[in-house]
Predict the structure.
Amino acid sequence: MIQAPYLLFLGDAPDMLAAKVAIGIRDWRPDAALGQLRLEGCGADLGLPDMSLTEAREAGARTLVIGVANRGGVISQAWKKVLVQAMEEGFDLASGLHNLLRDEEDLAAVARATGRRLHDVRVPSVRYPIANGLPRRGRRMLAVGTDCSVGKMYTAMAMEREMHDRGMKATFRATGQTGILITGGGVPLDAVIADFMAGSIEWLTPDNDPDHWDLIEGQGSLIHVSFSGVTLALIHGGQPDALILCHEPTREHMRGLPHFGLPSLEELRDLSLSMARMANPRAQVVGISINTQHMSEARAEACLAEAEDRLGLPAVDPYRHGAGRLVEALTAL
Amino acid sequence: MIQAPYLLFLGDAPDMLAAKVAIGIRDWRPDAALGQLRLEGCGADLGLPDMSLTEAREAGARTLVIGVANRGGVISQAWKKVLVQAMEEGFDLASGLHNLLRDEEDLAAVARATGRRLHDVRVPSVRYPIANGLPRRGRRMLAVGTDCSVGKMYTAMAMEREMHDRGMKATFRATGQTGILITGGGVPLDAVIADFMAGSIEWLTPDNDPDHWDLIEGQGSLIHVSFSGVTLALIHGGQPDALILCHEPTREHMRGLPHFGLPSLEELRDLSLSMARMANPRAQVVGISINTQHMSEARAEACLAEAEDRLGLPAVDPYRHGAGRLVEALTAL
């Protein structure tokens, strides 16, 4: 686990787009986002207090989280200076960068000397088991998508927030780098060795209270030929009781695959359900989450009403309307 | 690629069971199996000429292949002596052991000094691409199973041999450690990083002559919850034109999952076909391969006839009857 609270390092991010990870942490883990640290020329601003390393330590920060992509995959000397100083001041470091902190000899040496931890969340740090398929106590929801990047993480995060607001027991279970940096833990599923994928998800969603919900972040899509195997491992390892279908209706082809059209919600429903029932015969599809960000309000409402009518399931855009109706669909199970 | 021909190292294998990999190479790649090297106390005998390292080099051997499991996961000093000497005599080394040759400091040092290669086929040596899903020239067959270890590799190997005997263009494509050591190349799919699984299979089965068949070794099963994601990546990366259903009818539960019963051949057919057609709309199920090793001749014949009648597809046990009818089913496509 990555120790919270965090000081969010924005480096020399040219704009807000480059600070996507930091924005995710600020929006979804505000209690952990103590402040921001910006270098000269930084064009991003999270609206959080600007803090020096010393100020942040005094305010209780435990980990310096790199909340920004590095240019050209190189950790620059300007960054290194801050990262080294942070460890000397007592911070652990956390990063979702493609190039790993641990592979930088100087950072690794300082970490050893200071006893600080380097969290490279892009690679697994755990030896996961082979999945055993045994039923587990507690309940599980998995967001599945017609495609990659249609709002599966957002849906599960919004549901967790709504459930906590209602006093329900729920835990968002991160399966990607951004989700891990937001929550402080999880499984970087796309980097797990093939044989251990399903086992890593069993490990992530262990026995729990009977009224506790794991809200599992989806990855890829059963219908996306590049990543479908990852998605199936998530379905079989997660043993979800409830599936939520996620969709982005304006997309013209599968992400990265211009020659593949998108499946219908019905196709996603039938396929996901037949796969999920192999591992958990009680699995149900309970709702639809539609990402309407590229639609006018009127068009979004019409699209949601049409999907709801066609599939006979609550259909919402959690960004526009909150996740309340999806949570109610879970509790009705 | 691992350079053939091989000298097969049996070490101090207590019995034939321990020499399973070497037996596979002898049976399926006899041209590459020049001889065997046995240490004192070895209880296995492949019926190949016993050769010293020097004799084998003079006969043209290029690689010393460890064809036996090591006891307790330790490469003993007795083995090391032979492995070091082999490199000094000019052999590359190849191994499917869990503990890697490259992790043994002394072996790695001698390999560097002598310029010899250490092939640890249990881990990938290639940086595979993300799958792009583009159609490729040439044709592809994939063996899919109701369970793990039901005869998928054997079926594809028997078909390759039969197709070569008939003068057809065909290549067995290994996706597991034993298959890789038998053929000298392939993808150790169970050890590939999740995001690159489907891409590794695209890489393994590239564009080819229109009348060439890739015979892809299956792994796991879509219905086996521990490994289903690996199988789906194989289906979507392989884009098979033809599927052959593999089954072992005496098994009482899924391998390693005592609480999961086996699916029917019909369930395997429907599920595999719907998945395969996402990547290749022309995919067909063309035949059934049943492993009848635990049945009497009469019971085996009855079982095959019943399956053939029920599914309307040729059903054979390639071990008992050869793979001729499965090959004819491919050519009829």
